[in-house]
Specification:
Blueprint lengths: L7 E5 L11 H15 L3 E7 L12 E3 L5 E5 L2 E11 L6 E6 L1 H4 L11 H19 L5 E5 L6 H6 L12 E6 L7 E2 L2 H5 L14 E2 L2 E3 H8 L2 E4 L2 H6 L10 H6 L4 E3 L27 H13 L9 E9 L12 H4 L4 E9 L1 H13 L4 E5 L3 H10 L2 E4 L9 H7 L3 E5 L2 H6 L3 H4 L6 E3 L4 H15 L2 H12 L5 H19 L1
Parallel strand pairs: 1-2, 1-7, 2-6, 7-8, 8-12, 12-13, 14-15, 14-17, 15-16, 17-18, 18-19
Antiparallel strand pairs: 3-5, 4-5, 5-6, 9-11, 10-11
Helix pairs in contact: 1-18, 9-12
Length: 490
């Protein structure tokens, strides 16, 4: 399909790097719009002006054309203004919805009783801003539950405005586990038709008003952040209760892998690693390995593989598979460097592992950006045994750095890592299907067996380093989906 180079895209999102980021969504919002503008799209990003955003540091200034607009939510009237900046290194415009009452909190997301109002306000403010700008986007690209009501608003409460007659919507699901489920009173607060809140109707789900369900029902196109995840969310195992709704839209659901920022994650010019290297010249990687062992205060052990872990510690990440087989794994020629934080049980497990195997394991509890680059560059293998993984970025980083991933075959991991034994000469890593400790153990053992053959190992490394995970590739796919959405709307 030919690209619609002049596509006007409103990118609605609750976080965006470098202004605010809590996870992968922020990375996507900071990178995809930039790639879209490079492909010829006109992109305007909308996000809340949270209290933690450093206005002066980012060169954000008041957008005087939209100021003092009022929104009534459940009988409470609050005004908003817009602030504006350019996405760094890009022509994409960023508009910040300013309403201190809702957005000057300690964190972007809260458990406050008005969490529904906060993001209802944000979405209505986007619609009101577009009207005041007299800017009709071809597509509004919504992201997760925080902006999932916009497709419903376009077709109900704002259907009177002919300006939006041809505006299509695309909803990207970054994690189906977070759905924005609130009480039925939220429907009226959002200005949406309350008669659509009933069993089997667009707004009701398990006795709640579900923002995500509304977006799935009303958007022209639904995307997930990897092809495999697009399939998985339509199953009872990983659909988080919305699989039935998603199955009704199966013909309109697509998977597009996130990209990685190759200006930041590139061993040729990574500012955080001591020795630069490339697929053509891997000696620098060996030097980074030695430097990482020294940093981690681990001795260099002949024929041992260094396995890196950089992760949040959450049930999703699959580290519960390790304790039943860890003693068997430690009988193999391995060392571990671990960076992460999260649930206390996983933290305690890794701390205990460090105590039990001095000289074999080092663990850093917390967040350390520099160390994450260091581990990615210096390790021989990278472990991600996720229970589910919508897209995953760390396995892409590790492939880029010639650090061979060991992953469970799910979501984006299944789409990016090809098992060496399954794909023979085309494999770039190691993966397992069954979510069991034994499957994890046997896959680590397989990887270590191949690791001894340095000639074959180097081929696997180089294969991974040549993968194309650029945002340009992802942007081209999104432009195709925008065109599909526009055609459906017309």
């Amino acid at each position: 399909m030919s690209k619609q180079k002049t596509c006007k895209v409103c990118f609605a999102v609750s976080e965006c790097f470098p202004y605010v980021k809590t996870g992968g969504l922020g990375d996507v919002a900071g990178s995809l719009p930039k790639a879209l503008t490079e492909e010829g799209c006109e992109v305007r990003i909308f996000l809340p002006l949270y209290g933690g955003i450093k206005v002066i540091d980012h060169g954000i200034s008041r957008y005087e054309e939209v100021a003092g607009a009022e929104i009534n939510i459940g009988g409470n009237v609050h005004s908003f203004g817009l602030w504006h900046s350019k996405l760094p290194g890009s022509e994409a415009d960023v508009y910040f919805v300013d309403c201190p009452h809702y957005f000057h909190r300690d964190h972007p997301y809260t458990n406050d009783p008005d969490e529904d109002e906060r993001f209802i306000f944000f979405q209505i403010a986007i619609m009101e801003s577009l009207q005041r700008m007299n800017w009709a986007p071809d597509v509004i690209h919504c992201n997760d539950w925080q902006t999932a009501l916009i497709p419903a608003m376009i077709k109900t409460s704002y259907s009177w405005d002919r300006m939006f007659d041809k505006t299509a919507t695309l909803l990207s699901i970054h994690n189906i586990g977070y759905q924005g489920m609130f009480s039925s009173e939220s429907v009226a607060k959002a200005g949406l038709p309350v008669e659509y809140y009933a069993p089997y109707m667009p707004f009701e789900h398990n006795g709640t008003f579900c923002f995500m369900k509304a977006g799935i029902v009303y958007s022209e196109i639904v995307s997930a952040v990897s092809p495999t995840y697009a399939h998985e969310i339509q199953t009872s195992e990983l659909g988080a209760g919305l699989e039935g709704v998603l199955q009704t839209r199966s013909n309109d659901i697509y998977g597009v892998l996130n990209g990685i920022d190759e200006n930041i994650w590139n061993p040729k010019h990574d500012a955080f690693i001591p020795h630069k290297y490339s697929a053509a010249q891997l000696k620098g990687k060996e030097k980074n390995r030695a430097a990482l062992l020294e940093e981690a205060e681990l001795p260099a052990m002949a024929d041992s593989a260094l396995i890196g872990i950089v992760s949040r510690f959450a049930p999703q990440k699959g580290f519960e598979l390790l304790p039943p087989v860890i003693n068997e794994i430690m009988q193999l020629p391995v060392q571990f460097v671990v960076l992460g934080s999260g649930d206390s049980q996983t933290e305690d497990f890794f701390k205990g592992l460090k105590s039990s195997y001095p000289g074999r394991v080092n663990v850093y509890i917390g967040y350390n950006n520099k160390l994450s680059h260091y581990i990615t560059a210096g390790s021989d293998m990278f472990l991600m045994p996720s229970h589910y993984e919508p897209c995953g970025l760390n396995q892409m980083y590790s492939l880029r750095y010639g650090t061979v991933p060991i992953v469970r075959k799910t979501g984006g991991l299944a789409d990016t890592v090809r098992d060496y034994h399954e794909y023979d000469q085309k494999g770039n890593g190691f993966s397992f299907n069954d979510y069991t400790p034994q499957a994890l153990y046997s896959t680590v053992a397989r990887a270590l067996d191949i690791f001894r053959d340095k000639k074959v190992w180097k081929k696997i490394q180089k294969r991974g380093m040549k993968e194309d995970f650029s945002w340009k590739h992802s942007a081209d796919m999104y432009i195709e989906l925008y065109n599909k959405a526009i055609q459906k709307r017309s």
